């Protein structure tokens, strides 16, 4: 019986040692991977104006005090500033058919009847049965919000698609950059 316990103790020590060494190896690999990613991210091309431009967003306190109409007014101002400071200031090399900030591109939101990347309200035909608020800007695209809003509208609901501040115009807005 003593021999059995001694064997278990020895096996446990070996397993513990292997786990410790394995954990250190995994941690070292993770550090090397992250260092490589950081290095590679710094070697890429320079950021464009639309990556770094920042609109005059409402603070959390301002949003808490604002009406939806005031929120929409600020959104309108931000898009006017974006138009003036980014779209109208694009250098020639950025004026491509697939740049959403280029006024004559195929994907410029201003050419469409509705810019679904902005906040909106869809009213149902007839008396509303209720309301639904859909938030755009964390894990979805504006087009999925539009699709869901239209489904609710068809079922008789007022559908409000509210875009989170910073997500309207640039990827960096999501992280506060």
Automatic annotation (TrEMBL):
Lineage: Bacteria, Pseudomonadati, Pseudomonadota, Gammaproteobacteria, Enterobacterales
InterPro entries registered for this protein in UniProt: AB_hydrolase_fold
Transmembrane segments: 21-39
This protein's UniProt keywords: Membrane, Transmembrane, Transmembrane helix
Name this protein carries in UniProt: Membrane protein
């Amino acid at each position: 019986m003593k021999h059995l316990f001694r064997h278990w103790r020895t096996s446990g020590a070996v397993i513990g040692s292997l786990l410790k060494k394995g954990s250190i190896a995994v941690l070292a690999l993770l550090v090397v991977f992250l260092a490589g990613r950081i290095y590679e991210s710094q070697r890429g091309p320079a950021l464009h104006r639309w990556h770094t431009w920042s609109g005059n967003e409402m603070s959390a306190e301002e949003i808490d005090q604002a009406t939806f109409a005031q929120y929409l007014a600020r959104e309108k101002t931000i898009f006017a500033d974006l138009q003036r400071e980014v779209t109208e200031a694009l250098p020639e090399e950025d004026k491509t058919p697939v740049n959403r900030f280029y006024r004559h591109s195929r994907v410029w939101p201003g050419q469409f009847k509705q810019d679904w990347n902005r906040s909106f309200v869809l009213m149902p035909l007839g008396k509303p049965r209720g309301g639904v608020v859909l938030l755009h800007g964390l894990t979805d695209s504006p087009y999925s919000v539009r699709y869901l809003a239209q489904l609710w509208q068809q079922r008789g609901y007022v559908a409000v698609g509210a875009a989170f501040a910073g997500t309207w115009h640039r990827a960096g807005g999501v992280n506060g950059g």
